[in-house]
UniProtKB/TrEMBL annotation, chain A:
Protein name: Sugar ABC transporter permease
GO cellular component: plasma membrane
Organism listed in the record: Streptomyces nigrescens
Transmembrane segments: 12-36, 73-94, 115-136, 165-185, 228-247, 275-297
Matches recorded under Pfam families: BPD_transp_1 (PF00528)
Automatic annotation (TrEMBL), chain B:
Keywords for this protein: Cell membrane, Membrane, Transmembrane, Transmembrane helix, Transport
Residue stretches spanning the membrane: 53-75, 112-136, 148-171, 183-204, 286-307
Protein name: Carbohydrate ABC transporter permease
Location of the ABC transmembrane type-1 domain: 113-307
Compartments in which it is found: Cell membrane
Topology within the bilayer: Multi-pass membrane protein
Biological processes per GO annotation: transmembrane transport
Chain spans, region Disordered: 1-44
Protein family: Belongs to the binding-protein-dependent transport system permease family.
An annotated GO cellular component: plasma membrane
UniProt main location, coarse: membrane
Length: 307, 321
């Protein structure tokens, strides 16, 4: 029996573990090794160069603008996305006119709103990025055409072509794509908060503004924190890469104003043939990710509220 | 033009629910003390109505911001290029279905669609099967190294994928897996395993032990117990994680961009769409591009509307834990 059990365990684990080890674990370990070499990625020869790649990072202006942009995304994207998500979810669940008996209620048609808001979440990043790219097109894009139509014809920004605002344009698309998910997620959390909490607070004279910060937010804190980490990883990794690579001029431009760390790793490897240096950039991205998770965990630590 | 729906909506809402007479149950922070006892009658006080108008206003604006770009893309896919540039906000004069035919055939969107179906079909089955097997063993059996393996799998959720891509490219190259369906399927499975194992092992832990024990006493093997008893019991969890993986793999862009660049006919839908945007941009076939965009967009949106509840539950299940 015991023998059978171990054979069963081994049999069930061997295939998933093999695939995972070959395609996920081993590349991660190799990446850290390559970051100490001068490997081009094109030929098999390489030699150890110690910390040279890391020393070079300090001299690389593009790297530092990528760090700056990635950190900007990391700090602002979760704040904007989660705030909008919380705001709309609160409006949906608490913003309604009062009906009989219920002191506090959702707006009519909140289900429809939620279905609509979730649309962008099921679309792939390229679709969203291309849609926004059309909208931003300075000559015939929907945005400038709209400015024309409402009599702001002389305000015709270059959008993605203007280094001052290009990063904000990309960020707007990322916010647009992700808010709906949080509206639905926070709505689910809010609807499970007992109504009598609100009733008691309102009877005590609290207004809705207060009820949000004193009741809703503390009770949702765990969910908000999970969302924060999730958004942060999006801002640093896959999502940021795809949005910037598809939308921005260059990509990463104009003038490196939208360059982000994952895109720079990609460009250094597959465009410039500097795989060793690229992995050193990747390791610095890993460090930023780890610092971010540690900070969120620490800041978010507070007593868990049970209800 | 976009804001017109908003005031039109609101009077209808107000009419259906005329404010009932009676004092407010909800006194404001100041000046409401005398009315605390107005219980029972729902109030239609000033605060409630203003808030209602405000919240509907805000919600409708965001609703339009979300739906307008999508509608605009669909409408544009029926226009010719002159109309797209001349009147971006107007309706098409004639419905140009030829855009769609051109995108499907000449721009290979049909081929890309098929490629995505093959790869996602294969990797979804693989992910669910292998993920469930690993999660089941890790959740329900005690053996040395169990915790280590669990954290090895789950740890993959937090690491930047881009870091692994450079060596991964060469691992695939050495195994002759670049630009193949099965190579991409294996990689999709590998990168879906961390979340799948994390979610399903949590799920298997919650299932009652007694049923599995009964099956074992009746003489079923561990393997048989898994496939005939535990897997059917885990169906809700499998559906949730299946939807999550389907959307993630269908919308995958980073992995094919790096690992699937040799043969232009082997592109995934997301990759093909971006390639189309680049090449059509040069050729100036904007209407074809919008048709391609719409072809990529509509099936997923349609599926979402039909399976709306399951999709939302599947995607949010992970975040709520």
């Amino acid at each position: 029996m015991k023998h059978g059990k171990y054979r069963f365990i081994a049999g069930f684990l061997v295939l998933p573990l093999a695939i995972y080890a070959i395609f996920v674990i081993s590349p991660f370990v190799q990446a850290i090794y390559y970051s100490f070499t001068d490997w081009t990625g094109l030929s098999p020869d390489m030699k150890m160069v110690g910390l040279d790649n890391y020393a070079r990072l300090f001299q690389d202006d593009v790297f530092w603008s990528a760090v700056g942009n990635s950190v900007t995304l990391l700090l602002l994207l979760p704040v904007v996305t989660l705030s909008l998500g919380l705001f709309f979810a609160f409006m949906l669940n608490v913003g309604g006119r009062r009906r009989k008996k219920a002191v506090i209620g959702g707006v009519r048609g909140s289900g429809t709103y939620k279905i609509l808001y979730f649309f962008p979440q099921v679309l792939s990043v390229p679709i969203v990025a291309l849609l926004f790219q059309f909208a931003y097109n300075p000559e015939s894009g929907a945005l400038n055409a709209f400015f024309d139509a409402v009599g702001l014809g002389n305000v015709q920004p270059d959008w993605l072509g203007d280094p001052q605002i290009a990063l904000w344009c990309v960020m707007a698309a990322m916010v647009w794509a992700n808010v709906g998910f949080y509206v639905v997620l926070f709505s689910a959390g809010m609807s499970s908060i007992p109504k009598d909490f609100y009733e008691a607070a309102l009877l005590d004279g609290a207004n809705r503004f207060n009820t949000f910060f004193r009741i809703t937010l503390p009770l949702l804190w765990d969910t908000v924190q999970t969302g924060w980490i999730y958004m942060g990883i999006l801002a640093l990794d896959v999502s940021a890469f795809a949005f910037v690579q598809i939308m921005s001029v260059g990509p990463g431009g104009p003038d490196y104003s939208t360059e982000v760390l994952p895109l720079y790793v990609y460009q250094k490897t597959f465009r410039d043939g500097q795989a060793g240096y690229a992995t050193a950039i990747g390791v610095s991205l890993l460090i930023v990710t780890l610092i971010f998770s540690a900070v969120v965990m620490r800041l978010g630590r507070r007593e868990r509220l049970e209800f | 033009m976009s804001a017109q729906t908003d005031p039109a909506d609101l009077p209808g809402v107000t009419k259906e629910h005329p404010p009932p007479p009676g004092a407010s149950r909800l006194p404001g922070p100041r000046g409401g003390q005398g009315r605390k006892d107005g219980a029972g009658s729902g109030g239609g006080s000033g605060e409630g109505r203003v808030l209602n108008v405000f919240s509907h206003g805000v919600l409708v604006i965001w609703g339009l911001l979300v739906t307008m770009p999508l509608l605009w893309a669909v409408v544009s896919s029926f226009k010719d290029d002159t109309e797209i540039f001349g009147s971006p906000w107007g309706l098409p004069s004639v419905l140009h279905f030829d855009n769609w035919a051109r995108a499907w055939d000449k721009a290979h969107m049909g081929q890309y669609f098929l490629n995505s179906l093959i790869v996602v079909g294969g990797s979804l089955i693989g992910t669910m099967l292998l993920g469930a097997m690993a999660a089941y063993v890790l959740a329900r059996f005690d053996f040395p190294g169990n915790r280590f393996l669990y954290f090895l799998f789950v740890g993959g959720m937090g690491f930047p994928v881009i870091l692994a891509l450079v060596p991964l490219f060469f691992v695939m190259k050495n195994m002759a897996l670049l630009d193949t369906y099965h190579g991409l399927i294996l990689v999709y499975i590998a990168y879906s395993l961390p979340f799948t194992v994390f979610f399903l092992s949590g799920f298997f832990k919650t299932l009652p032990t007694s049923v599995a024990e009964a099956a074992l006493i009746d003489g079923a093997s561990h393997t048989r117990t898994f496939f005939q008893v535990m897997l059917p019991m885990a169906k809700p969890g499998l559906i949730s994680v299946g939807i999550f993986n389907f959307l993630g793999q269908w919308n995958q862009y980073l992995l094919p961009t790096v690992l699937n660049v040799g043969d232009p006919d082997r592109k995934m839908l997301t990759q093909g769409l971006v390639a189309l945007a680049v090449s059509q941009g040069y050729k100036g076939d904007w209407s074809g591009l919008f048709a391609g965009l719409t072809i990529a967009m509509l099936p997923v949106l349609a599926a979402y509307i039909i399976f709306q509840r399951q999709v939302v539950a599947g995607l949010t299940a992970g975040a709520l834990k």
